[in-house]
């Protein structure tokens, strides 16, 4: 029991250091992995593999992130993202709520493929001026954008790959929960727009501002670029759920990304420098943009390797068995109450300490990997939308001239209920 307390103290200490911005997550996670292994007295040969094997453990996730980043660069460089946003602005006309929902939908669609701060800046600098020209409150503009990002992230294949790798789940299992969770976040977006964009809160409307300039011509079929990788993965996932539960074929996510890249190069307007140069430039810029995420995944892999060791699990699992729920009501209640632990790089954040705890929680009696995935994906919406430590939240707040903590306070009242209902859905799907 004494070693278990020390291991939990290491988690708590790293959480505090990350919360205070004294230690970035990509440094804290490898340190945590080694500290846990040392305290648990993992033998030296196995201790060495925490770094060597751990850094390769999530290779499917960061390989997917790299290919996804290349596709994102092609989407940006060919004008597809700009065209989608400005076309939605034209369709919305002078109706603030309609236009806001259309643009949030476009943001969500783009972030099923896009990712990283660079993509946030690219899309936000197109979307924000349009929404601000309508006289929308700045906090509402930031909230809608972050809600759209998180909604798209639920269906982002790179995020799916991380859950698949850490928890050893099939694509069909992730899809079976991601689809209803996405629906709940759509509802949260609509409620947010209806409440936050009440006429009394609007200062002026579209007619007072100049309409956005029409973007350069991009054919309609090029606008499908962000969802092309999703189509084969979703098609096989739905087929597996409906017809082949015993012998499923999981369409490879990296292959889906390559299909999306090839489609983009074929259908996008011909760039001045040529398509080969577009691919080369997009590859270089995409890899540079995703480098911080890859570095973070290296640390996550080390942490997963460390906490997966029998020596570590032997100390932690008895403690978790007394804490974690095994019934549906307990599951919903515990994770609803603990949902804020997904904030500030906390223990329920899959991109932080949650990656290590997820493996241990999955082995607890009565839970299992699918239930843990549903819990982390549900409460993860608080992290995706509300977390003041997100670099994209900080950038959005700075751009709009608001306090990043204000974004947390304004959005959490909409996201937390959606996460609670998501946990209820997860309990019904994955707990007996």
How would you characterize the overall build of this protein?
The protein is an all-alpha fold. It has one domain (2-430). Helix content is 73%, strand content 0%. The protein is built from 20 helices and no strands. The chain has helices spanning 2-19, 25-39, 44-52, 54-57, 59-77, 80-92, 96-110, 117-133, 138-154, 157-167, 171-196, 230-242, 253-267, 275-307, 310-323, 328-338, 354-362, 369-386, 391-400, 404-430. Mean pLDDT is 82; it is low at 204-215.
Chain-wise SSE layout:
Elements: H1 2-19, H2 25-39, H3 44-52, H4 54-57, H5 59-77, H6 80-92, H7 96-110, H8 117-133, H9 138-154, H10 157-167, H11 171-196, H12 230-242, H13 253-267, H14 275-307, H15 310-323, H16 328-338, H17 354-362, H18 369-386, H19 391-400, H20 404-430
Helix pairs in contact: 1-2, 2-14, 3-14, 5-10, 5-13, 5-14, 6-7, 6-8, 7-9, 7-11, 8-9, 8-19, 9-11, 9-18, 9-19, 9-20, 11-12, 11-18, 11-20, 14-17, 16-20, 17-18, 18-20
């Amino acid at each position: 029991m004494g070693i278990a307390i020390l291991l939990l103290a290491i988690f708590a200490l790293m959480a505090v250091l990350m919360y205070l911005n004294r230690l970035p997550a990509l440094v804290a996670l490898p340190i945590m992995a080694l500290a846990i292994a040392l305290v648990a007295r993992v033998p030296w040969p196995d201790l060495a593999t925490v770094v060597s094997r751990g850094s390769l453990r999530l290779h499917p996730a960061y390989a997917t992130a790299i290919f996804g980043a290349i596709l994102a660069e092609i989407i940006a460089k060919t004008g597809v993202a700009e065209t989608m946003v400005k076309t939605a602005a034209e369709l919305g006309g002078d109706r603030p709520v309609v236009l806001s929902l259309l643009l949030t939908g476009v943001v969500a669609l783009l972030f099923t493929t896009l990712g990283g701060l660079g993509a946030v800046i690219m899309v936000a600098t197109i979307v924000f001026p349009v929404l601000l020209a309508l006289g929308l409150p700045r906090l509402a503009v930031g909230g809608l954008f972050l809600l759209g990002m998180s909604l798209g992230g639920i269906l982002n294949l790179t995020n799916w790959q991380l859950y698949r790798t850490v928890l050893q789940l099939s694509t069909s299992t992730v899809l079976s929960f991601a689809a209803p969770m996405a629906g709940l976040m759509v509802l949260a977006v609509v409620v947010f727009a209806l409440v936050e964009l009440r006429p009394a809160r609007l200062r002026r409307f579209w007619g007072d501002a100049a309409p956005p300039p029409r973007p350069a011509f991009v054919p309609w079929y090029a606008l499908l670029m962000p969802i092309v990788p999703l189509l084969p993965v979703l098609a096989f996932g739905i087929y597996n759920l409906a017809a082949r539960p015993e012998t499923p074929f999981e369409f490879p996510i990296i292959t889906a990304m390559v299909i999306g890249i090839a489609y983009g190069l074929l259908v996008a307007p011909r760039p001045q420098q040529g398509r080969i140069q577009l691919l080369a430039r997009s590859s270089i810029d995409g890899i540079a943009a995703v480098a911080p995420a890859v570095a973070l995944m290296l640390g996550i892999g080390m942490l997963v390797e460390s906490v997966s060791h029998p020596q570590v699990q032997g100390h932690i699992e008895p403690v978790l068995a007394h804490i974690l729920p095994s019934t549906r009501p307990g599951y919903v209640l515990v994770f609803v109450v603990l949902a804020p632990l997904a904030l500030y790089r906390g223990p329920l954040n899959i991109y932080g300490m949650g990656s290590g705890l997820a493996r241990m929680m999955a082995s607890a009696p009565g839970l299992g990997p699918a239930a843990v995935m549903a819990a982390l994906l549900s409460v993860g919406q608080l992290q995706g939308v509300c977390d003041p430590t997100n670099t994209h939240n900080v950038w959005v707040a700075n751009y709009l001239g608001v306090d990043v903590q204000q974004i947390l306070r304004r959005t959490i009242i909409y996201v937390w209920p959606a996460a609670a209902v998501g946990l209820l859905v997860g309990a019904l799907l994955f707990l007996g």
